Automatic annotation (TrEMBL), chain A:
Listed GO MF terms: cytochrome-c oxidase activity
Subcellular location, principal: membrane
Protein's UniProt name: Unannotated protein
Species whose genome carries this gene: freshwater metagenome
Lineage: unclassified sequences, metagenomes, ecological metagenomes
Subcellular location: Cell membrane
GO annotation, biological process: aerobic electron transport chain
Cell membrane found in the keyword field: yes
Membrane topology field: Multi-pass membrane protein
UniProt cross-references to PROSITE patterns, sorted A to Z: COX3
UniProtKB/TrEMBL annotation, chain B:
A Pfam family this chain is assigned to: Cytochrom_C
Record-level GO BP terms: ATP synthesis coupled electron transport
Occurrences of domain Cytochrome c (ranges): 261-396
Protein name: cytochrome-c oxidase
Location of this chain's protein in the cell: Membrane
The organism of origin for this protein: freshwater metagenome
Lineage: unclassified sequences, metagenomes, ecological metagenomes
GO MF terms held by the record: copper ion binding; cytochrome-c oxidase activity; heme binding; oxidoreductase activity
TrEMBL record, chain D:
GO cellular component terms, semicolon-separated: plasma membrane
Alphabetic keyword roster: Cell membrane, Copper, Electron transport, Heme, Iron, Membrane, Metal-binding, Respiratory chain, Translocase, Transmembrane, Transmembrane helix, Transport
Name of the protein this chain belongs to: cytochrome-c oxidase
Species per Swiss-Prot/TrEMBL record: freshwater metagenome
Ranges annotated as spanning the membrane: 53-73, 93-114, 135-154, 180-204, 224-246, 269-289, 301-322, 334-356, 368-390, 410-431, 446-465, 485-510, 606-633
Composition bias type Low complexity, residue spans: 659-672
TrEMBL record, chain E:
UniProt keyword Membrane present: yes
Keywords: Cell membrane, Membrane, Transmembrane, Transmembrane helix
Organism: freshwater metagenome
InterPro entries assigned: Caa3_sub_IV, Cyt_c_oxidase_su4_prok
Segments passing through the bilayer: 29-48, 60-81, 93-115
Membrane topology category: Multi-pass membrane protein
Pfam families: COX4_pro (PF03626)
Residue ranges, annotated region (Disordered): 1-22
The protein, known as: Unannotated protein
């Protein structure tokens, strides 16, 4: 059985899905997809929460803070830029996957780095945006339910991106030390694209549709 | 070939037991006597409508129950393994299924339910019908209910009372249900189903009493410490009695007579001590801002009303003695008890109950006044309690 | 089993702990009216409880001395723990390293002397310098310096230990990796990510609103472009790659520091930028700029 | 696949291996765990069977805890005006009872069976991610202990198990109980998500050759549905709990009506999770019963495709009915109407199951063994609960019934009479397979009858009480309300249940003692059963299958033993002894134990305490979590040093860190050698995710 | 891709399919990327539509945006995430999650009256109906009879 592994590089990248699982799909990949399917419900819930609250900055008694909707403070040109950045990072991610499939470790590292850096830029942009809301617009997390749900949603997405960036960088580090498996890169890539997809939704539903 | 007598006998006995028990239950549990909250003894047309749905539903559920359970007993006894049977001989036929049969018992219940669903829809749509309803606003709070009657439709309530609402027999009543803090649920089982009181929303329950009576109710959505004791009553009066009640409730009670010294002192004490939360129209100051009793104000609760009629979030005591119960119906105000609805209660006041309350409210009902939930214990002296009681008795 | 080497450290830890308690108790009592006063007035409980609860309840007099002693005890205990765990100074493992025939007394320590270069002393010295400078200049530097020192201590210890863990340098290196990578990689990754995010957001905050959009996309396009350019070359030289990375890092660092120092832009008077003008001419246009000044007043800046 | 075939003989199973004495590792406590026996072997295990057993033991412990709380409830309510518990304490007790029973008894007990049996039933050697399996156990346990520690740290949660806002907000519940609820459930939710993903992948990916989906045993099928439900339901409650935590700890106002929040959001999110959750609790028991009834009726399950299909249908329909818990909430007539109708029809697939079980027994030759008794009990009792469920699917009727003891009766009939009875049957059924000896049959019958009688005495009267208007969650009632008699009956019933559980515990102890004195192995196939797990020796060897079976039919094992004659009657075609596996494994290679899951899990409650009391406590927690994750990722899932010496990883170039970039040729070599060493080893490293 | 991978039930592991084919080439990825960028640019442009065209165009912006969003979503999922090329099982897994999410949350939003949200700062709309029109001169509900 194991000689199969030597047959060609092609097989080597997926050493474990040959003749081993019932569906022919590796456990990790299937597991990641199942997890992503589950994450749909998570982000769905957060997005719904935002939708319900977005027009309720709450001018009723007892409210503390700002009575404006978050959407009044959006800086669409800036956020579009960060959206483009996330798209770029998705591209660099697939390029990384293609590199590792080719066995090109050098380019794998190059693309991993650029993906992580782009992710970092996106996060930097988000911090900038949050700071702007808080400092310049006076709209904090507890200002009103609309802003709370906005920060909770984008914050949760941000946490996903942070985790993604850290996974990418760790992957980079591991690629120097030990062997790296194409499968692992691909699975991290799936996660990364999912985060991108979620941003596609958030950008349209939250930012562009007032 | 097999002797199945035993199986039939057992099945028969089980069926008999079930039927007898069922009969006993059906004839017994519905009786309202001694069970003030029973759901099976409707006294209003909405609860009757519900009953009309429940009965066929229960009947069909009962039939399915008997079929399945008796069938189970039969199958299990009939096909039990007997002592003379050995493995490998006369083994069962290996039946893997029967698609027709299975489709049958997929479709049959579905059809049955579809038929019932029609009644269901019908009843649901019926629940919100009302003609010329009397509107009463109900506000749930930890852990008592307030009622407001806006008789002239000017937006400002004309009667504010607690615990006990009065309605005329035969007229639709629309209870508009709000909450002042957490979710409660308004429920007078004899008259209608439940409806939650949700802070920030106004819900409605429509009901109509078909006979005179004092109908018990209970908060049924878990609302914290004293949820279990958050009770209320609706007293249904004849239209004439209802008019009498209205008149009495809209005229202010007389000031205590000067020779009733205790009561006069009680009034002073009341204004000094109790008006922080309680209101007696015309006596206590009205301009105080609402006591920060709860943090979930209804949009119009506290704003308009506080200034005119209520000091804080505690029962308005103006017509305390017009009621037959207080503290959410836990205690009676009159010695004769409160089970018969009277427009203007008659009888000897039960001062012991009032004193018991004033002595230590938390003994009657667990509350948490430190967190602004409920009435604190003021450690009143017996003398003060006497005075206050004397004063409260004048509030009729 | 508690190994020989670690015993000393445990001892030191215990002594340190006792000293810390005694010190805290005595100084605490002193601060509250002197020892005899405390004993007579029943404050004894406070002065005992104080050091026991690390000053949470009760009294601790001189916090700094107390903390130093406590930290000493803590460090000693941790080192002792390490040594126990790694069986340093354990007769059996020494014997194992040096082969049969030796016993712990005649073990040749040269055999287990560390070999190879280590950068940690330099980093340590640098961190120490930072602390010194920081004491004079800013708390941030002290913090960074201390952090550096901690890192050095840990890394150095582990390295020193690993180099004499067995007599096979290969295995030793593997051991070190096995132990340290789970800590190094996440820390490095996080530091990397945080650095990018933090510095970038400083730069963005320093420029104008439109500027921010331009800057961020520019940086991204540059990163992206350089990556594409590099990958399109048939043979990637390592030095080029490293050079590009370094250059990027330096630029980001410089920009971030500059941005941080110049501070966040002030939304109102940012003369000369398109943004200032447009907000004057076209009005709110979806952004409640008219509100900005009022809301600004109410706010405590969180950054 | 987790386990590869290797040409060397297995060395792992015997425990004390004279050949390889424990070489002292220079890493001391940081070394890879090796223990195969003793408590250490349980702490570091990644074996699905050990994990399953630990789930079982822990959940049984929590059954006693939750049951103890239930007994307190019943004692308090036994007479009107009882002073045993204060209102405050009572509220904590019933909340903790509900949460404990749901999240710490029924769900993990189902997990116990799922973990133990799914790999066996599909012919696998372990689950797809063995270390993740250990992780989910430890996280769940950490969360459960964390949650119950609230008793000692300021009082338990007191918001009811569905914890409606705004009563659960800081304003009205200023204590820490509800924080424990929120964070405890979040932690347990993480554990369950991990396990659900794991088991979903296991069922899809680890089946033995020939085991297509429609040849899987019904138990595996039902658990598969449950895992999928979990995968989708847990994130919803995670959202709700996150929002609640933000409200309570970070000053948001998602559920605070005074600040524009909407209490309905909580209700919806909770029940979107909550209703699938009730099927999550009952379907595993349905699965067990579907295994037990055919065995003791000596007939195949009636209508296998319908059984599977109805399970899937229940799973799907379960997503469209959640608001039937909110009929009285005032959500509006149209919504009530829609949800009332959808709820009605969920009775259909469940009915199919009940009737198919009866059809399975029909014409069979029923042996009243203890597992069978419990299964029959389930069929009878669940029907009662299901029918009362249907009566409150009619929304107007429900407005009279909701929040009364009628509901309490309903859900105990489905939860106790469904889930718990089924699992009790499961315990008796699979006990010989798990532990190599029978539970006492006669004591078991005592257990069953006591339980059945006690159960009906406890919860039967609650129907009457509820219809007579007794509301739930009331800490007391007055004598004029007319609830006294049935409450007393119910309390007596509860103690009979307690007695039955004591009988069960006695049974466990005594049957074990008896077995110790006079060991009698029940053999691979004590019940003459049908599915694959009965093909292997009892107790299950560590490697499960010496040789992975090739499956040709549904009920493969049965068909290897029996055929039928021209009348369709059962005839034997092979002796059991000839069909079961003899235990001489040749080529098995098992995943190695690991500490990291435990380390990671330990960090979670620390973070929880940190959030509640003082953030500094979270620091060690985070460190543990991060160290756990990375330690795990860097640790090969199969210990290269385990047992058979250094084989796999030595080919791997031991690159000094970050040296020069490898030239393309080197890269290839690297990849090849890596995979050479790792075709199998790397196999379950996805695990590391 | 072999039939074994396509059909869940035929995938007898005794004889599983060969290795699956790999996704697009780098060049194809670039094309998709530029497509995505273009779509996003289009999306962003809606922000200025009322300035550029006239105010009415904002109305069609929402459906346009939603369509573009869905297209982008599937471009990323199908190509970047290889769903198009991988085993259909993965597609099904993901779609089931997506569909459950959409179904559940759309229903929940509807029940919470999201679509009719009046935008008031108070709750969307208390489900109490306005007082039935009632005519003082007639005993029946409804508006007064003519005349
Ligand atoms: C294992 C858990 C479980 C299961 C399986 C069920 C099953 C069902 N439940 Fe239950 N339910 C709970 C656990 C469960 N429930 C819990 C815990 C609560 C309370 C939560 C709380 O408030 O704390 C609750 C509450 C609850 C309510 C809300 C009551 C209220 O609070 O007002 C409703 C309302 O519709 C309901 C309905 C149903 C229905 C229709 C089914 C159906 O699935 C039942 C279907 C089964 C049958 C019908 C029997 C067999 C069928 C036949 C023999 C065929 C023929 C039948 C007919 C033609 C009718 N349940
Ligand atoms: C999931 C399963 C489950 C199970 C198995 C049970 C089991 C029991 N339940 Fe529970 N129950 C719930 C789930 C469950 N419950 C839920 C979800 C609620 C709603 C909570 C809420 O409203 O928020 C509830 C609520 C609930 C109430 C309503 C409380 C109220 O509304 O005020 C009552 C009242 O009688 C009750 C009783 C019981 C009893 C007597 C048992 C018995 O069957 C218990 C049997 C077990 C034992 C008797 C243990 C035996 C112990 C020993 C033998 C040893 C003693 C132990 C020690 C000394 C440590 N339960
Ligand atoms: Cu109010 Cu319960
Ligand atoms: Cu439900």
């Amino acid at each position: 059985m194991s000689d199969l592994a030597y047959e060609s590089l092609e097989d080597v990248e997926f050493p474990d899905d040959i003749h081993t699982t019932s569906t022919g799909i590796s456990n990790e990949k299937l597991g990641m997809w199942v997890y992503l399917a589950s994450d749909c419900l998570l982000f769905g819930g957060m997005i719904s929460t935002y939708l319900i609250y977005k027009n309720r900055p709450g001018e009723i008694a007892g409210l503390s803070g700002n009575t404006h909707k978050v959407s009044e403070y959006f800086d669409i040109p800036f956020t579009s830029m960060t959206s483009f950045i996330l798209l770029m990072s998705s591209l660099t991610m697939v390029l990384a996957v293609n590199s590792v499939i080719r066995g090109d470790l050098t380019r794998l590292r190059l693309w991993l780095t650029s993906t992580a850096v782009l992710g970092g830029l996106f996060l930097g942009g988000q911090i900038y945006e949050f700071t702007n809301f808080v400092v310049n617009d006076g709209l904090g997390f507890t200002s009103n339910v609309a802003s709370s749900s906005f920060f909770a949603l984008t914050g949760l997405h941000g946490v996903h991106v942070v985790v993604g960036v850290i996974m990418l960088l760790s992957m980079l580090a591991i690629s120097f030390g030990t062997r790296i498996r194409a499968e692992a890169v691909e699975v991290v890539g799936l996660y990364w694209h999912f985060v991108d997809i979620v941003w596609v939704l958030i950008f349209t539903i939250v930012y562009l549709i007032p | 070939m097999r002797n199945n007598r035993k199986s039939y006998v057992i099945t028969g006995i089980c069926l008999a037991i079930v039927l007898v028990l069922g009969y006993l239950l059906v004839t017994n549990i519905g009786s309202p006597v001694g069970r003030p909250l029973t759901t099976l003894s409707p006294r209003g047309d909405k609860s009757q409508a519900i009953q009309n749905l429940i009965i066929p539903v229960f009947a069909i559920a009962g039939v399915v129950f008997i079929l399945v359970e008796i069938g189970l007993v039969f199958v299990v006894t009939r096909f039990r393994r007997r002592s003379d049977e050995v493995d490998g001989k006369d083994e069962p036929v290996q039946l893997h299924g029967n698609t027709k049969l299975e489709l049958g018992w997929t479709i049959a219940p579905a059809l049955l339910l579809a038929v019932l669903a029609v009644f269901n829809v019908n009843t649901i749509l019926q629940m919100d019908d009302a003609t010329d309803p009397l509107e009463v606003t109900v506000i749930g709070q930890q852990w008592w209910w307030e009622y407001r009657y806006d008789l002239d439709n000017d937006g400002a309530p004309d009667i504010i009372t607690a615990t006990e609402a009065a309605i005329p027999v035969g007229r639709d009543v629309r209870f508009k249900i709000q909450s002042n803090d957490v979710i409660h649920s308004f429920w007078i089982p004899a008259l209608s189903g439940k409806m939650d009181a949700v802070p920030g929303r106004t819900h409605q329950v429509i009901l109509q009493a078909n006979e005179v009576g004092m109908f018990q109710g209970q908060c049924t959505e878990y609302c914290g410490l004293s949820h279990g004791l958050m009770r209320m009553q609706v007293k249904a009066l004849t239209p004439e009695d209802y008019q009498i009640w209205l008149t009495a409730m809209t005229t202010s009670p007389a000031q205590p007579e000067p020779k009733n010294e205790l009561a006069v002192q009680g009034q002073t004490l009341f204004v000094a001590q109790c008006s922080y939360c309680h209101q007696v129209n015309g006596v206590t100051p009205t301009s105080k801002s609402p006591y920060p009793y709860s943090t979930v104000p209804d949009p119009d609760y506290g704003k308009t009303v506080a200034i005119t009629m209520a000091s804080g979030n505690a029962p308005n005591l103006t017509h305390l003695m017009m009621r037959q119960h207080f503290v959410g119906g836990l205690l009676d105000l009159y010695q004769e008890g409160g089970s018969v609805a009277q427009a203007i209660p008659e009888g000897t006041p039960d001062t012991n109950n009032i004193k018991r309350w004033l002595r230590n409210p938390e003994d009657v009902k667990p509350m948490n006044p430190n967190n602004n939930q409920g009435m604190p214990n003021y450690n009143l002296s017996e003398a003060q309690i006497e005075q206050l009681t004397a004063y409260l008795l004048t509030l009729k | 089993m508690i190994t020989r080497g670690s015993k000393y450290f445990y001892g030191a830890a215990a002594v340190g702990l006792l000293m810390a308690f005694a010190y805290g108790m005595i100084t605490g009592a002193n601060n509250n009216g002197g020892l005899s006063e405390v004993l007579s007035s029943g404050g004894l409980v406070n002065s005992i409880v104080g050091p026991l609860t690390f000053g949470y309840k009760g009294w601790v007099g001189d916090q700094i001395g107390y903390s130093i002693l406590l930290s000493f005890a803590g460090v000693m205990a941790v080192i002792g723990g390490f040594l126990t765990a790694f069986r340093d100074g354990d007769a059996e493992s020494l014997i194992q390293i040096q082969g049969p025939g030796t016993n712990s007394d005649n073990a040749d320590l040269r055999v287990v002397t560390p070999q190879g270069l280590s950068y940690w002393p330099i980093v340590g010295a640098f961190s120490f310098g930072l602390v010194l400078v920081g004491v004079a200049m800013s708390g941030l530097l002290v913090g960074i310096g201390c952090l550096g020192l901690v890192v050095v201590v840990v890394e150095w210890t582990v390295r020193a230990w690993s180099e004499r863990a067995t007599d096979d340098p290969e295995t030793n290196r593997a051991l070190r990796k096995k132990l340290m990578h789970p800590i190094e990689i996440p820390v490095a990754a996080t530091v990397g990510a945080v650095a990018i995010v933090f510095l970038m957001s400083r730069i963005l905050l320093a420029v104008s609103k439109t500027g921010a959009a331009i800057v961020i996309i520019l940086v991204a396009v540059i990163v992206f472009g350089v990556a594409i350019f590099l990958s399109s070359r048939p043979h990637l030289k390592r030095s080029v790659l490293v050079g590009a990375l370094l250059l990027g890092a330096v630029l980001l660092l410089a920009g971030g520091i500059a941005g941080g120092i110049s501070g966040p832009r002030e939304s109102e008077h940012h003369s000369g930028t398109e943004e200032g003008i447009s907000s004057l001419t076209s009005g709110p246009s979806g952004h409640a700029s008219s509100n900005e000044s009022t809301s600004l007043d109410r706010l405590t800046v969180e950054y | 696949m987790a386990i590869i075939e290797d040409q060397r003989p297995l060395e792992l199973t015997t425990g004390h291996d004279p050949v390889a004495p424990e070489a002292p590792s220079p890493l001391g406590v940081f070394a890879r765990p090796k223990a195969n026996t003793g408590w250490r072997s349980w702490v570091n295990t990644v074996d699905h069977k050990k994990i399953g057993i630990m789930y079982g033991v822990a959940s049984f412990f929590f059954l006693l805890v939750g049951g103890f709380e239930a007994l307190l409830i019943r004692l308090q309510l036994s007479v009107p005006g009882n002073q045993l518990l204060s209102a405050d304490l009572y509220n904590q007790v019933f909340t903790m009872h509900g949460v404990t029973m749901v999240f710490m008894v029924i769900m993990p007990m189902a997990s116990a069976f799922a973990n133990y049996l799914i790999p066996l039933q599909i012919g696998a050697r372990d689950v797809s991610f063995p270390r993740m399996n250990a992780l989910s156990l430890w996280i769940w346990l950490a969360g459960a202990i964390f949650f119950n520690s609230s008793w000692l740290l300021g009082g338990g949660a007191d918001g009811g198990w569905f914890n409606y806002a705004p009563n659960a907000g800081v304003t009205f519940s200023p204590g820490t109980g509800i924080d424990f609820y929120a964070i405890g459930l979040l932690i347990m939710g993480i554990g369950s998500t991990v396990s659900a993903v794991n088991l979903t992948v296991t069922v899809l990916n680890m089946r033995a050759p020939g085991m297509t989906l429609m040849k899987m045993p019904v138990f595996t099928w039902m658990n598969f549905v449950v895992q999928v439900l979990l995968v989708f339901a847990l994130p919803v409650i995670t959202v709700a709990l996150l929002l609640l935590t933000l409200d309570r700890m970070f000053g948001a106002a998602f559920f605070d009506a005074s600040k524009g929040g909407d209490p309905f959001l909580w209700e919806h999110l909770f029940w979107i999770f909550g209703h699938p959750e009730v099927y999550i609790m009952v379907l595993p028991a349905f699965g067990m019963v579907s295994e037990i009834i055919p065995v003791f009726s000596r007939k195949p399950i009636f209508g296998y495709p319908f059984m599977v299909g109805s399970g899937i249908a229940i799973g799907f329909m379960g997503w469209g009915v959640w608001a039937h818990h909110m009929f009285a909430s005032g959500m509006g007539q149209l919504s009530v109407l829609a949800f009332s109708l959808s709820t009605l029809f969920i009775a259909v697939p469940t009915g199919v199951k009940i009737l198919n079980w009866m059809a399975t027994m029909y014409g069979g030759r029923i042996k009243f063994s203890v597992p069978m008794l419990f299964s029959i009990g389930l069929v009878g009792m669940f029907t009662i609960g299901g029918l009362s469920g249907v009566t409150h699917a009619f929304a107007p009727a429900d407005t009279q019934q909701t929040d009364t003891y009628y509901i309490v009766a309903h859900f105990h009939y489905v939860l106790f009479g469904g889930a718990l009875l089924g699992m009790m049957g499961g315990l008796y059924f699979w006990w010989p397979k798990m532990f190599g000896h029978f539970l006492g049959e006669r004591t078991g019958k005592w257990h069953f009858w006591l339980m059945l009688v006690g159960f009906n005495l406890t919860f039967g009267p609650m129907h009457i009480l509820g219809l007579q208007g007794m509301m739930r969650r009331t800490y007391t009632y007055t004598s004029v309300q007319g609830f006294s008699m049935w409450n007393m009956v119910s309390t007596i019933g509860a103690f009979i249940i307690a007695l039955s559980l004591l009988t069960f515990m006695g049974n466990v102890v005594f049957s074990y003692r008896k077995h110790r004195k006079n060991p009698v192995n029940p053999g691979a196939d004590p019940w003459d059963a049908r599915s694959l797990e009965w093909m292997i020796p009892s107790p299950t060897p560590e490697y499960n299958f010496a040789e992975i079976p090739v499956v040709e039919e549904f009920d493969e094992f049965w068909h290897r033993k029996y055929g039928h004659d021209e009348n369709g009657r059962l005839v034997r075609i092979a002796k059991t002894e000839d069909v079961v596996e003899s235990s001489d494994p040749v080529t098995v290679h098992l995943p190695s134990p690991s500490y990291w899951p435990l380390v990671l899990a330990l960090g979670m409650p620390l973070v929880g305490y940190g959030l509640i009391f003082n953030l500094w406590w979270a620091v060690p927690g985070v460190i543990l979590i991060v160290a756990g994750i990375y330690g795990w990722v860097m640790e090969p899932s199969t210990d290269p040093d385990a047992g058979h010496g250094h084989d796999d990883h030595h080919g791997e170039p031991d690159e000094p860190e970050a040296t020069e970039l490898a030239a393309p040729e080197t890269v290839e070599a690297e990849l090849v050698s890596a995979s050479a060493g790792s075709t199998g080893v790397t196999a379950e490293e996805g695990d590391s995710k | 891709m072999s039939a074994a991978v396509t059909e869940l039930d035929d995938d007898s592991p005794v004889n599983p399919g060969e290795h699956h084919t790999h996704g697009p080439t780098d060049g194809q990825y670039f094309k998709i990327f530029f497509l995505l960028v273009g779509l996003t640019a289009l999306e962003v442009s809606t922000y200025w539509w009322d300035d550029i065209f006239n105010a009415d165009t904002k109305k069609i912006a929402v459906p346009v945006l939603l369509t573009l969003m869905v297209i982008k979503f599937f471009l990323v999922a199908l190509y970047f995430m290889h769903l198009k090329f991988d085993s259909p099982l993965l597609k099904r897994t993901f779609y089931v999650g997506m569909i459950v999410a959409i179904f559940v949350y759309v229903v929940a939003l509807s029940v919470m009256n999201f679509w009719g949200d009046s935008g008031t700062t108070h709750f969307n709309d208390p489900p109490i109906d306005p007082p039935a029109p009632f005519c003082a001169t007639s005993s029946k509900p409804g508006p007064c009879p003519a005349g």
